[in-house]
Amino acid sequence: MAVLMHLSDLHFGAHDPAVCDAALRLAQRLGVSMAVVSGDLTQRATASQFAQASRFVQALHARSTLVLAGNHDLPLFAWWMRWGRSYERFSTQFGLDYEPVRQAGAFYVVGVNTTRAWRHERGSLSSAQIRHVADLLARAPPDAWRIVASHHPLVARDAADRAHRPSRADEALQCWRSAGAQMLLSGHAHQPALLNPMPGLWASHAGTAVSYRLRHGCPNSLVVLTVEASGEAECGWARYAARWDYDAQSGEFERVLRISAA
User: Fold this and answer.
1) 59 membership: H or E segment, kind and range
2) Are the CB atoms for 33 and 4 separated by under 8 Å?
């Protein structure tokens, strides 16, 4: 079984150590092939918060990691860094590639940076980014699970959620689906959801994985994608997406939903 753990909105500096420990135990129990962190690693983009986030990501012991910046990872109070140095502290811990591409076994993940220093909270996609992601998807291995990760969600849960989408989201959805995208990973809204916006395309909204900045009564949450052997599928394997919520009583993450994401 191949396992991808999708976490988002860690918000180190506003994190719960007990929930962090539970997430690490889950990663160890599952044996994670790839970890995808879709932004907001920190609360206020300080050097110490990035260092904490880096130690946590390393402690997941995933064989491959893909980490994106979120809007909280751009300096807010250090305003002088917003001109040409917005990603400086992020890159110190996570490197200079802000749109990484990773393949680990059955998973092929393309990262896209939807943050913009001058917009602070709202996200954006350029036409060049949309074309570039489509080109990468078209070159993916034929049997891979083709996944796009971003901080801001391209698919809204409801009308009230549309403000969280980056500009050009509709254009990106159509283009990437045509290029073969099968799963979208995102965060930002702190509201977990597994959505099927169009045939053959799923969207995973991770909640806030380890922060106490919970919203709308949603618990700490993360998503696990698996590719498993299956005698029922023609190709011999099956794809699943599962939501795991933190249970305060047990002190562990528990699986609360599992869907077929074929």
Assistant:
1) helix 47-59
2) yes
Sheet holding 145-149, edge to edge: 101-104, 107-111, 145-149, 183-186, 201-205, 193-198
pLDDT value at 102 more than 70: yes
In angstroms, the CA 196 to CA 188 distance is 19
* Res 256 pLDDT > 70: yes
Kindly indicate the confidence band of residue 122, based on its pLDDT and cuts at 50, 70 and 90: confident
Kindly compute the dihedral angle of the four CA atoms of residues 153, 196, 253, 95, in this order, to the nearest 10 degrees: -40
Contact criterion met (CB below 8 Å) for 169 and 186: no
Does residue 145 contact residue 182 with C-beta atoms inside 8 Å?
yes
206, 58 Cβ separation under 8 angstroms = no
Residues linked to residue 104 through DSSP beta bridges, in sequence order:
107
On whether the pTM is more than 0.90, the answer is yes
Per-residue 3-state assignment (H helix, E strand, C coil) for 116-182:
CCCCCCCCECCHHHHHHHHHHHHCCCCCCEEEEECCCCCCCCCHHHHHHCCECHHHHHHHHHHCCCC
User: In this predicted model, what pLDDT tens digit does every residue of 44-91 receive, in sequence order?
Assistant: 999 999 999 999 999 999 999 999 999 999 986 666 566 667 899 999
Instruction: Write the pLDDT tens digit of every residue in 151-178.
Output: 999 998 877 778 889 999 999 999 999 9
Closest CA to 201 of 178, 182, 227: 182
* DSSP 8-state assignment for residue 88: H
Distance in angstroms (rounded) separating the CA atoms of residues 77 and 192: 29
Which of 86, 76, 23 minimizes the C-alpha distance to 53? 23
| Inter-CA distances, 72 with 11, 40, 156, 247, 249, Å | 8, 5, 20, 26, 30
The amino acid at residue 194 is L
